[in-house]
Amino acid sequence: MSGAGTGAGGRVGARRRSVAGSRWWVAAVFLLPALVLLGALVVYPIGFSVYRSLFDASGNGFVGLGNYGALFSDEGIRTALKNNVVWVVVAPTVSTALGLIFAVLTERVRWGTAFKLVVFMPMAISMLAAGIIFRLVYDQDPQRGVADAVWVAVHDTFAEPAPFPGAKPRPNADLRPSGGGAFTTRSVVRAGSSVGLPLVAVQPRDVQRAGPAVVARPRPGMVTGTAWLDFTRGGGGRPGVIDPGERALAGLTVEAVRDGRVVASAVTAADGTFVLPAGAAGARLRLPAANFAAAYNGVDWLGPALVTPAIIGSYVWMWAGFAMVLIAAGLAGVPRELLEAARVDGAGEWQVFRRITVPLLAPVLVVVLVTLMINVLKIFDLVYIIAPGSSLRSANVLALQLFQSSFGTDVDEGLGSAIAVFLLVLVLPVMYVNLRRIRKERRR
Fold it and tell me: By its UniProt entry, which PANTHER family does this protein fall under (predicted)?
């Protein structure tokens, strides 16, 4: 019996040893395809990039760490590095903050789901399409760019635009430039006289609804006059004379100036006429520069000064929805009894948010922040598409510089490989923090 038992036990142990002994072969068979792909797509490119970064542009001359030195000596690459710092600090922080605000504010709203859907929708758009959209949004022409159209509308609400931007006196007229964009008559005016102020180069839209000009009647003791567009459609007409069909210039400010001091002023009526009091006699008439100032065309969003913040704005538009969805999922797991207990104890909504909601959401916020930081370090297509050629150097980032150095006009694969390795080094600390966080969560 003992021998039989020993024999049966020996067979079972042998079977177990056989299965245990074959497990690493089974694991190797299943892992081999993944390991081959990992080596071909990750390990080999990284190793080759490190190797190639040690050689010059031709690939024949060994330069050691010379390409890495160029990272900090080349002005364009330093600009890219500075912009990457701005991107890493600003873009993930703003996107995460907006996602948190959206997730908390829409929690109790009936239409919160619809709002979240709208905010998340830009994630369905490719970076290429988003870049094209925002290239149009930031167009400086208010007729095409939405951002400047809104900005100009707000500006013009509080600052009255010039009535006739770009207008100027007719050649050989009595009006002459007097500095700063203003025009002043050469001769002084007399009481009881009527003065003509003919102008040209008026934009058609500025006189589209203007009525016909009228010759001002002289008034005893006063100075009268008419300002009009001295231009007849189809040609003809007499210079300096109000011909039939010529348009009045209404809303034009006229000043009487004596010894550099304004003694009287008036604004032209709908028919172009104006009346100055008797104190204007013996003075010269001046049309201030405010009458002809160029129209406000908004902000140069894609200029060298604002191009990086503008592109970051487009990134936030795309990724705030991603942050909101993840934070909303974490918010759904927050124990409601803790929030209600805090409210019962007299805590306000801001105190509940700051002292309970945010600390409980801290793991989720870290996940979102780290994910966006890794994503931002690889940003390329938005910058390449949105930034115009004149501002591309000011908006440059490391990933774009990597593309330009490797495949641009001045091809230097050694420098491009050094930039790629440097980007990998920048990502490694973020990945390490993320892995430590994952391990801590598994231990819990």
Answer: BLL4140 PROTEIN, DIACETYLCHITOBIOSE UPTAKE SYSTEM PERMEASE PROTEIN DASB
Characterise 342 by phi-psi region: left (phi > 0), alpha (psi -120 to 50), beta (else). Answer: alpha
Sheet harboring 284-287: ordered strands across? Answer: 175-177, 183-185, 284-287, 253-258, 261-267
- From the list 241, 223, 114, 110, the residue with the least C-alpha distance to 173 is 241
> Model confidence over 311-328: pLDDT tens digits?
999 999 999 999 999 999
Of 238, 267, 291, the residue that ends a domain is 291
Nearest to 281 by CA among 222, 364, 216: 222
**Rounded-to-integer distance, Cα 326 and Cα 116, Å:** 11
Q: Are residues 172 and 273 in the same domain?
A: yes
Q: Is 181 found in the same domain as 278?
A: yes
Helix (H, G, I), strand (E, B) or coil at 379: coil
User: Which tens digits make up the pLDDT trace of 78-111?
Assistant: 899 999 999 999 999 999 999 999 998 888 788 8
Residue 242, Ramachandran bin (φ over 0: left; ψ between -120 and 50: alpha; else beta) = beta
Cα 264 from chain centroid (whole Å): 46
Instruction: Tell me how crowded residue 433 is: count the other CB atoms within 10 A of its CB.
Output: 14
Q: How far apart are CA 372 and CA 93, in angstroms?
A: 9
- Same domain, yes or no, for 259 and 240? yes
Mean pLDDT for the stretch of residues 22-37: 83
Distance CA 119, CA 324 (A): 8
Domain that holds residue 131: 76-152+301-403
Q: What's the rounded mean pLDDT across residues 406-417? A: 82
What does the alpha-carbon distance between residue 314 and residue 3 come to, in Å, rounded to a whole number?
Answer: 80
Which CATH number do you get for residue 102? 1.10.3720.10
Tell me if 273 sits within 8 A of 226, measured CB to CB: yes
Q: What is the pLDDT of residue 426?
A: 85
- Of 403, 423, 438, the last residue of a domain is 403
- 231 and 173, same structural domain? yes
382 lies in some domain: yes
Tokens of 352: 């509940």
